[in-house]
Amino acid sequence: MTHVTPSANRRRLAVDHHGQRGEFAALWLRERSPDDGTLDPRTGQRLVEAAELPLELRIDAADVADSQLHLRFSDGHRTVFDLAALFDDQTIDPSKRLWGAANAPRPAADFAAALENDAALSYMLESLYRDGFVIVSGVPTHEDGMQPLVDRIGPLRRTNWGGIADVKSVANAYDLTMTQRGLEPHTDNPYRDPIPGYIWLHCLTNAAEGGDSTLADGLMAARLLRERDPDAYACLTRVTPSFRYRDGDTDLESEGPLIELDSRGEPVRVRYSNRTERIPALPPEELEAYYAARQAFYQLITGEELTLHLKLDPGQMLIMDNYRLLHGRSAFQLAGGVRHMRQGYVDRDSTASRRRVLRQQLATPQGQGETA
């Protein structure tokens, strides 16, 4: 059953629909009206100037029929909302699956299949979105082996290191990733604006002793911190350190909290980069709270409760959500052989767009949605 109840001044509408309840402002409903007079039918972009709608706009009539909400506004406009779609817009996306070491997934995809088949590519992207990473097998083991699959999704993000760059031990390393040193769990490049969205790490050879990769779900770490130490959690969402990278040709700096919240107050992004973090000289009591909170978060992301260990084989590629996962590696010794990875970045907008478009296309029966 569905019930609609306008407020006394008719500038709000309460809707109860199959156990869901929402309260919607008249102006919000008017500017989001899903009709051709308000939204362009092809692009979905708004045709009316929302800032010119009367602030005292009211809902003059509201009726429900066949799971649709029929509205008439005080400016004379009429529209019809699909009730399921109206509530979908208010629902937090449930499709992300947070994990720890005990229930860590192993999402897998095949390079050739994802390259040739839209359903396989969609499966890969949905796995990446749900779990924060996916392991792709069968990647050609030459230096630009990942490039054809990158091209299926969006442009490669170029940085001061170029496009697809080496990750291996070199003399006179300009970054600690280019040494044999183990790396603590971290997110990449928090000193950039925007931060690269997805890391593509392609294994060419991995015969060195050590060099195993580690992954930890930063959103799960944030959830556990909120449950176990609410004050520490609040501190890491409030205090904003900066992050900086400099070399002879580059000077990059940005800022943001270690745990970033979305508009609903839920964790949406984590940052952690011990090598590049610069906390400002805050009042001592605030710094003390921050240092304790950071340590609590660090203990979570480095502990075995959340850490997944894996070692990539030649021809495998790890794609990681750089806003969600923290990754690291153990130290390695070249006495056993060479460890040579290639790494590139793809931004979030192109990745999300490709995933959504494929989801819609694959859900639409062939022939529907076509125009003459």
UniProtKB/TrEMBL annotation:
Where in the numbering of this chain does the Gamma-butyrobetaine hydroxylase-like N-terminal domain appear?
9-86
Q: Which InterPro entries match?
A: AlphaKG_dependent_hydroxylases, GBBH-like_N, GBBH-like_N_sf, TauD-like_sf, TauD/TfdA-like
Give, as one word, the top-level EC class.
Answer: oxidoreductase
Q: For this protein, what is any one GO molecular function term? A: trimethyllysine dioxygenase activity
- Could you tell me the keywords of this UniProt record? Dioxygenase, Iron, Metal-binding, Oxidoreductase
Q: Which CDD domains match?
A: CAS_like (cd00250)
Biological processes annotated in GO = carnitine biosynthetic process
Which reaction equations make up its catalytic activity?
N(6),N(6),N(6)-trimethyl-L-lysine + 2-oxoglutarate + O2 = (3S)-3-hydroxy-N(6),N(6),N(6)-trimethyl-L-lysine + succinate + CO2
Please state every residue range assigned to the domain named TauD/TfdA-like.
Answer: 98-345
Superkingdom in the source lineage: Bacteria
**Keyword Methyltransferase on this protein?**
no
Q: Which Gene3D superfamilies match?
A: 3.30.2020.30, Clavaminate synthase-like
Q: What is its EC number?
A: 1.14.11.8
List the cofactors.
L-ascorbate; Fe(2+)
Identify its protein family: Belongs to the gamma-BBH/TMLD family.
What this chain does, per the entry, is described as:
Converts trimethyllysine (TML) into hydroxytrimethyllysine (HTML).
Name of the protein: trimethyllysine dioxygenase
Source organism per entry reads: Vreelandella salicampi
